[in-house]
C-alpha cells in the first residue's frame, strides 16, 4: 500500500491555438482526497486531465505532483511516478480477455505471484469481472468495460487516479456500484482521486470536495456536502 500523492496546480493555462481554454486554473489536492471536477460540456475538464497526463501541451503554469514538476516529464514517466488516467470511452483492449487486460495493466508493477495476487485483488473489488474473466473486451457490457478500465488502472497501484466521466452511458445502479468501489478503494489505500463528471449528483455523493469549472476558470471550490446541499450554489453553477 502506497500513500496518495498531493497535487498542486497553479496558474494552469492551455491554448490549443485559438485562444486559452484554461485561464490560470488553481487547485490543491491533498493525499487521499476525492475531488469531483464538475462543469458543463466544454468547460475544460478533459483538457485539464490531458494537461496533467501530458497529452495536452501546457502554455503556462505549474503542475506539482508530490514535489515534482510534471511538465518536465513525458506521459510514461508521469505514469511511473504513480499518475493514472482512465479516459472516457473506456479504453480497454477489446481483442483481449478481461484477465489479459488486467495482466497488461499490472505488467511493469507486479511480477510472478504478485501479479496473480494483484489480479485477484481486482476481482474482489469488482466481482462481475471475475465471472467474465475469459470474455473478450468487446463482449462486455458498458458497466463491465468501465470496471475493467478502472481495474486496469488500479492494478498498477497509482498514487493519484484521474477519471474522465466514468459514469457516461451507464445504468444508474452500475454507476452507484462503481462510484462506491472507487471511494472505498481511495479511502482504503489513501489514493488521491480527481473525478471529472457531468453526473454531478453521483460525483458529489462520493467526493470530499467539488470544483466547478466554467469556460476554463474555477468558479467554485467547496466541500462536496456544501455544494450538494446549497440550492443557490447548485443553481448558479451547476444548472439544477
Ligand atoms: P466534455 O465534457 O465535452 O469533454 P470538457 O469540460 O471536458 O467537456 P474540453 O473537452 O476540455 O471540455 O474542452 C474545452 C474547450 O477546449 C472546448 O471549447 C473545446 O472545443 C476545446 N478543445 C478541446 N480539445 C481541443 C483540441 N484538441 N483542439 C482545439 N480545441 C479543443
Automatic annotation (TrEMBL):
ABC transporter domain sequence ranges: 7-240
Gene3D superfamilies xref list: P-loop containing nucleotide triphosphate hydrolases
Listed GO MF terms: ATP binding; ATP hydrolysis activity; branched-chain amino acid transmembrane transporter activity
UniProt keyword list: Amino-acid transport, ATP-binding, Nucleotide-binding, Transport
Domain of life: Bacteria
GO biological process: L-amino acid transport
Short name of one Pfam family: ABC_tran
Family: Belongs to the ABC transporter superfamily.
Protein name: ABC transporter ATP-binding protein
Originating organism: Leucobacter komagatae
